[in-house]
Amino acid sequence: MAFSNPETDDGEVMSEINMIPLIDVMLVLLIVFMITVPVMTHSVNVNLPQAATEPHRDPPETIRLSVDAEGHLHWNQTAISPAELEERLVQAALMDPQPDVHIRGDKAVRYEHVASTMAAAQRAGIRKLAFVTEP
Questions:
Q1: What are the strands of the beta sheet with 63-67, ordered from one edge?
Q2: pTM for this predicted structure
Q3: How, if at all, do strands 101-105 and 78-80 pair?
Q4: What is the pLDDT of residues 27-63, one digit of tens each?
Q5: pLDDT-derived band at 7, boundaries 50, 70, 90
Q6: 113 backbone φψ class: left, alpha, beta (φ>0; ψ -120 to 50)
Q7: In this structure, is residue 118 part of a structural domain?
Q8: 87 inside domain
Q9: Greatest Cα pair distance in the chain
Q10: Euclidean distance between CA atoms 102 and 1, whole angstroms
């Protein structure tokens, strides 16, 4: 860095870039990077456990049982008899994984028809039984 001397100063503007502050900044950045890079790449060796995975099985389709106002049964919108309901529920109970059974009862149906449908599902061995309602 050049200091001006009043005796030799000829009044000209100094046109050189002062490099000292730039070099100081570069050295500080170099030291910061030299300290932080080993910290970022350092890792702790951990012996992780191995997970046993099994293939993803798609859940079976949900069975929708409907009981209309007259007490007639519908299996996924297909009309069935009570005897046929028993057979289909037994087949569904043997499936692995077992499907969910959703019962939709008309609000005008007698409760005994819905209760007999629930009892048939219980006798067949269905474990997941749900009621469908409207909010």
A1: 78-80, 73-75, 63-67, 101-105, 129-131
A2: 0.57
A3: unpaired
A4: 999 999 888 887 777 677 888 888 888 777 788 889 9
A5: low
A6: alpha
A7: yes
A8: yes
A9: 121
A10: 88
